[in-house]
Design goal:
- By secondary structure, the chain is α/β, with parallel strands linked by helices.
- It is globular and about 40 Å long.
- Strands 3-2-1-4-5-7-6 form a seven-stranded mixed beta sheet, with helices on both faces.
- The protein contains five helices and seven strands; from the N terminus they run αβαβαββαβαββ.
- S-adenosylmethionine (SAM) binds next to α2 and β2.
Length: about 190
């Protein structure tokens, strides 16, 4: 059975991350991805979660408390500043779930310049074999522009350094979301 885009994102992260790893949720939103990362890296691991909205940080905090997850630092700031907050020199994985917070103010959306700056920062400090997942929703105003910028950037990443996968249902209407997975290759 084909996995939907979000399930596929989570399965790839579960496959790639191990207990004790360091991972980033660049867009916490309702905290579903943060929870997945927290459970996957376990108590010996560490997760950093970012969102610009207080409401998203609060929702994520509540979700983590419900599940007794204590390995997460939540930061209310733009993900383009993420390196200012991360104590470790390198990390193992990250997820960006782009777009707006469901059931909330649809005018607060991720935007191409900060998204690209954050992806670039993450890739710089990603360990070999590390994985970055981008889930791209683009049906809202500004979404097409961000999608095009992200596709242009990721499709031009050096193939000697990264493998880049696109997972997309190509016969769906309504600009359904799709996934980009970037894996840093091992140094040879
Ligand atoms: C599609 S939602 C994320 C869904 C979330 N990962 C989940 O599991 O529920 C996108 C989120 O990105 C946040 N966001 C927008 N611009 C941002 C930025 N520059 N830095 C960090 N978060 C941002 C929004 O506030 C929103 O909560």
């Amino acid at each position: 059975m084909l996995l939907n885009v979000l399930t596929c994102a989570h399965e790839l992260l579960k496959e790639s991350l191990e207990e004790g790893d360091v991972a980033i949720d660049a867009t916490c939103g309702n905290g579903n991805d943060t929870l997945l990362l927290s459970r996957t890296v376990g108590p010996s691991g560490k997760v950093y979660g970012f969102d610009i909205q207080e409401q998203a940080i609060q929702k994520t905090k509540e979700k983590l408390q419900e599940h007794n997850c204590q390995n997460v630092s939540l930061i209310q700031d733009s993900h383009e500043s993420l390196l200012n907050y991360i104590e470790e020199d390198f990390f193992d994985g990250a997820i960006f779930n782009l777009g707006y917070l469901p059931k909330s103010d649809k005018s607060i959306v991720t935007k191409a310049p900060s998204t690209l700056a954050a992806i670039e920062a993450v890739l710089e400090r990603l360990k070999p074999n590390g994985l970055v997942i981008l889930v791209i929703y683009y049906g809202h105003p500004g979404g097409e522009e961000e999608k095009d910028a992200v596709l242009s950037y990721t499709s031009q990443l050096d193939q000697k350094a990264y493998q880049v996968l696109q997972y997309k249902f190509i016969n769906q209407q309504n600009q359904s979301p799709f996934l980009i997975a970037i894996e840093k290759k091992k140094r040879s």
